[in-house]
Amino acid sequence: PMIVMGAVNALILGTLALFIASVIGFVVALMRVSGNPILVAISATYVYLFRGTPMLIQLIFWFNAVPIMFPSITISLPFMTEPLVSAPTTTIVTPFLAALAGLSLAEGAYMSEIIRAGILAVDKGQRAAATALGMTQRQVLVQVVIPQAGRIIIPAAGNQYIMLLKSSSLASAIGYLELLRVATDIYSSNFHVVELLVVAAFWYLVMTAFATAIQAILEKVFPQR
After folding, report:
1. Dist CA 225 CA 223 (whole Å)
2. Which of 56, 129, 151, 207 has the most CB atoms within 10 Å of its CB?
């Protein structure tokens, strides 16, 4: 039961991180292709920082450094006399939240490049044709570019999902009870190191097979052409 719980926790963490990273990546990708020099500079800096530093360092930073930098978190609204939230940072930034923030922000940098590549892969002639028909830039983006770019990025996004499921093991370094952390805790008490590592590897393969099946279904439902 503990191993299954760890596998479920890893699956939840990886799935939520991919969803958040996709939203971040979409926004950053639009900033990169906007042509606005300020937005391009901000998005390029974000990609450079989060793609250029190890994911493990980012997780440890969120869990250990943020509570030191900000001992408490207070959120208040102008019309309220009492703060909406006021608590020590250590009670808010749990291992799960720190792992989710670290994985999402790091993966968002990779997803932004994948989405940007998908947007740029759409033929410019189709955009020109849509504009000639009287469509606005927003309509061109929503109705012409995004549907085609989405089909293009499905294989790469599937690979990133598989990578995130495996990268969830990094959360064991900050105490989150995902699959590797649970297996480590068990073999620390019964000394069955080889057996528990094999079990953990098996469950990672199961999760990878699950992600691969989803990717295959999406590629069939939404082919590139």
Report:
1. 5
2. 207
Structural contact between residues 214 and 158, judged by C-beta atoms closer than 8 angstroms: yes
Supply φ then ψ for residue 73, to 5 degrees.
-120, 125
11: three-class secondary structure by DSSP? helix
61: number of Cβ within 10 Å:
15
pLDDT tens digit string along 153-211?
A: 999 999 999 999 999 999 999 999 999 999 999 999 999 999 999 999 999 999 999 99
107, two tokens: 């993966």
pLDDT digits (tens, 9 = 90+) for 91-110: 889 999 999 999 999 999 99
What is the reported pLDDT for 225? 65
Task: Tell me the torsion sign for CA atoms 18, 23, 27, 33.
Answer: positive
Backbone angles phi, psi at 74, to 5 degrees: -130, 125
Is the separation of the CB atoms in 165 and 149 below 8 Å? no
CB contact burial 152-174 (16+ within 10 A = b; e otherwise): bbbebbbebbbbbbbbbbbbbeb
CA distance 118 to 152: 6
Structure tokens, 68: 């030191």
How much of the chain is in helix, strand and coil states, percent to nearest 5? 80, 5, 15
Tokens of 86: 């006021």
